[in-house]
Amino acid sequence: MSNGNVKTNQDFDNLSKQIAKATPVGVKMNAYNPTNTAAASCPKTTAGKWEAVSDPLPPAANAQLCSCMMDTLSCVVADKTSEDDFGDMFGFICGLKGGEYCAGINKNATSSRSYGAYGMCSNKEQLSFAANAYAKAVSGGCNFKGKATTKAAVATPTASGCSSLLKAAGASGTGVVSGGATGSSSGSASSGNKTGAASALSAPVFNAGAISLGMYVVGAAVSGMAMILL
After folding, report:
1. Is residue 14 part of a domain?
2. What CATH number is given to the structural domain containing 212?
3. From CA 73, how far away is CA 152, in angstroms rounded?
4. Angstrom distance (rounded) from CA 54 to CA 52
5. Which of 86, 110, 177, 210 has the greatest number of C-beta atoms within 10 Å?
6. Beta-strand relationship, 75-77 and 114-115
């Protein structure tokens, strides 16, 4: 703009010339007959090219399930704990016993292709689930240098739908829970989580790259094991 007047540059003139060459042709709605209506199929899994599969799918986001699960825990991440410390804690816990304590939050889409029922919960909820599993197996295990704390657990949460949701998820969190964020109480337990429902997932801020616990296991060898947490 110069002295209150807009002055176009050469790029504008070039674009105008190209637009002027366009000759769009409209079509009436009743004459529209698309031929490309076949749904696209997922690509086949091939080494080094495409590893994710369409079945099973990750669990649907379900805030009620996560809340119900948290009520049952007797060991949870302390409120004062920074997310900067989550990586070491995940690495230590998930690096033990082949990831046994983290089966309920598993998000491995390329190896075992199984998903934990709580893999869509928040970072803190997932870590609390893993810490609780570890604490139940190890005497005095709920410490983590003050980064975890004990609380009163509710054996059977009274909130509507919790009983069926938790039953479907299973004690280890490897079952399948149907229903989305509204917390539908319908669910079917299936060890290994062979099916899942696509939905808007609650993506945790802390992520291990290829959405698997493999990075956590590596972290255990590098830094997590240095945390003698008891």
Report:
1. no
2. 1.20.58.1040
3. 8
4. 7
5. 177
6. unpaired
Three-state DSSP class for 63? helix
Residue 91, token pair as written in the block: 């690495």
Q: How many domains does the chain have?
A: 1
98 domain residue, yes or no: yes
**3 state DSSP class of 34:** coil
Alpha carbon distance 91, 220 (integer Å): 4
Q: Check: CB of residue 40 under 8 Å from CB of residue 96.
A: no
CA atoms within 13 A on the CB side of 202: 20
Cβ proximity of 109 and 53 under 8 Å: yes
Domain hosting 196: range is 63-226
0.85 exceeded by pTM: no
pLDDT single digits (tens) 30-70:
988 888 888 877 777 776 677 777 777 788 889 999 999 99
